[in-house]
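Now for a specimen:

…
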Amino acid sequence: MLGPPLRHTLLLLPTLIFARPGPALGQLHADFLRIGARDINKGEFGFPNHLTPLKEYQQALEMDVRIQRQVDKSGNAELTGYVGRLAEQIQRRSDLKGPLWLRLTRSQEHLAFSTLAGRAYIDEKLVRIAENESQLAGAIAHEVAHLAARHGAENISRMRLLDANPSGFLTLLRPCLTIGNPFTSGGTDGFWQAVCYFNEIEADELATQYLWNSGFDPEGLLNLLSVFQDHNWLDAPPGPSQTSSHPPISVRQKRIRIQLKKLPGLEAARLDSSDFQKAREQTRANGVPLSRK
């Protein structure tokens, strides 16, 4: 998620002391040659998802109604079409099962975010911020990765399981502590920060794999994060806080570079296109603001 995580109303728990995280810096999903055929929601890094597909779809529709009341839809049909086609290229070469509903917004609070059941939201500002098409594709791939990993549905399941059994927190959190996660204590806030931290790391890895599998420059997301860093966007201060659930950009880049070393080289990686440059010029001509929110 290129923006703060979804907020949930949770049962308040007493202060918890979690197991010490390991320093693991390897891949979470090493089977990138099976993208689309593998199930990334099973095994060590999967999580028991207690939402049926129907319930997940219903939850997504309810969220979508609320979100559309809070954001302005882009009125640029040409730009919307371009971003939608780019997203479809990535979705077809990803692990996302089912359709992708991508909405282009204008000057919303977040640059990009996703909910569940294939719903993603990209702001026009991202088209202007990205320096080339592979960077925009990296942002889209990151949201597709959240959806493919079903992070939204998993978090709803976590919330319900915690409500039913507050003492079972460690079982719910254990996979998140295998990546050198800094959030090892802190009660309810610490729990959700640890989960969100893990989700961002997983989404970055999957997004890099999806860029590679779609023929884009697999460094697209890595380079976009450098742009964010240059403008002081989306970085997080060290230590648990309400604003630091995203890993620091330097940590995200380190793990993406590990992933890049594992991927075979591409003979002709797609870096940019005239369609992107045209779209970017449109956002500049239309005065899409770049103020940080």
Q: What stands out?
A: The chain has one domain: 32-285. The CA atoms of residues 49 and 128 lie 37 Å apart. The first strand starts at residue 101 and ends at 105. The beta strands are 101-105, 112-114, 119-123.
